[in-house]
Amino acid sequence: TPNDGNFTLASTEKMESLTIMDVNGKMLQAIEQPSMKQAISLQGATPGVYLVKVLFIGEKEAVTARIVIE
């Protein structure tokens, strides 16, 4: 679902890290040990597609999801 740059990432598993990047791989925000319901603010970000990379505790591979900012 597109958003305005403010959103909440919720998980049932504990996260080790959370990284938000643009589609070119430029890191915009990195959070170590985010909460299981982490508020994210990318206000002022250019509208477009961004990647959210989450590494869960005990996992070796990160999970990547797309978000769209309008």
Produce a short descriptive summary:
By secondary structure, the chain is mainly beta.
Query: Would you count the extended β strands for me?
Result: 6
Count the helices. How many?
0
Across the major sheet, the strand order is: 3-2-5-6
Order of helices and strands: EEEEEE
Distance between the termini: 10 Å
* Beta-strand residue percentage: over 45%
Cα shape? globular
Overall pLDDT metric: 94
Helix content: under 10%
What does the largest sheet look like? 4 strands, antiparallel
The low-confidence runs, each spanning 5 or more residues with pLDDT under 50, are none
Summing up helix and strand content along with how strands pair, one would put the structural category as mainly beta
Rg: 12 Å
Structural summary, described in words:
The chain has 70 residues and is mainly β. It is 0% helix and 57% strand. The protein has no helices and six strands. The strands form two sheets. A four-stranded antiparallel sheet has the order 3-2-5-6, with no helix packed on it. It has a two-stranded antiparallel ribbon with strand order 1-4. The protein starts with 5 loop residues before the first strand and ends with a strand. The model has no long low-confidence stretch (mean pLDDT 94).
Question: What is the fold's blueprint, element by element?
Answer:
Layout: E1 6-10, E2 15-22, E3 27-32, E4 37-41, E5 48-56, E6 63-69
Antiparallel strand pairs: 1-4, 2-3, 2-5, 5-6
What distinguishing features does this structure have?
globular; single chain; two-stranded antiparallel ribbon; four-stranded antiparallel sheet; 70 residues; mainly beta
